[in-house]
Amino acid sequence: MIIERIKDIREDRDYGQKDIADLLHVTQAQYSRYELGINIIPVEKICILADFYNTSVDYLLGRTDEVKPYSRSTLLPDKVK
Question: How many domains is the chain partitioned into structurally?
Answer without folding.
Answer: 1
